[in-house]
User: Fold these one by one.
Assistant:
Number 1:
Amino acid sequence: MTPLLVVLVSVGGGLGAVVRFLTDARLSRNQPRVPIGTFVINLSGSLLLGFLVGWLGSRDGMSATWLAILGTGFCGGYTTFSTASVEVVRLWVTEGQVGGWAYALATLIGSVLAAAAGLSLGGLLG
């Protein structure tokens, strides 16, 4: 791992965090009770990461570098497990156990399915 790669992964992570912030602000302003922004972010981030792994994982050379920058950096900064976890607990408290469990299961199952779809699509293009 080179110092340049560390810088590029950091820049990717910063960009991902900014895109997450803007996306969440845009999506959540109409739905303050339901954390739709985090839900959409985690599903789209899982789809993107799956795609990148499927597409870049089958290549040689620079693909590992791009996977680190885009996958670890951007997708790592964009998606957020910790926020989703807090929102599950918040929904559990404010909406009851059913709301919390529904959000948790929808996030988990949806993210896994999105990652699988991205991986398949990326594999087809790779």
Number 2:
Amino acid sequence: MRASSSLAKQQGFAGSGVDALASAAGLTSGAFYRHFEGKGELLSAIIETELEATRSRFSTIEPRTEEQLYLAIDAYLSLAHVRHPESGCVLPALASEIGRAPAETKAVFERALLELLAVLSEKVGDASAAFALLNQCVGAVMIARGLATDSAKRQVLEAARKSARESISSLSRAADRQATTDRR
């Protein structure tokens, strides 16, 4: 699964044939079809596996801990993540292809994404802010991957990091004010 996922994230899922995806996993095409009914079922499995891994990584962060959130966002919005889609998050690599997938695949994506957002919401302390941060980070990585120069990529990533930090800091200040009000 991981090998097929890496190939799909690096070269695109639609552009990777069953033979290449099976070969990346050390399987023949015939063995592939013993595990999956078709390429669409593999995409659903990749989505589920990848978003579960992302959810697990974020679940280790203490809720509403600014420094841990900053570290996670800095790692996500890094030049290394931009340069190596095969080892990074499935969202910037395959979201546009998922948008063209069958309804069953989109349903798997939606469920897995909502599970991830539940974890992020707990960590950030606000569901809408968690969704906005996710959108901002994924979008920044997608845009940076489309740029030709490292300096332009860094500019996109730095702007997104700065904005994300400001959002997290603002949420933290609002939570502190609320806690002070609640104690009175």
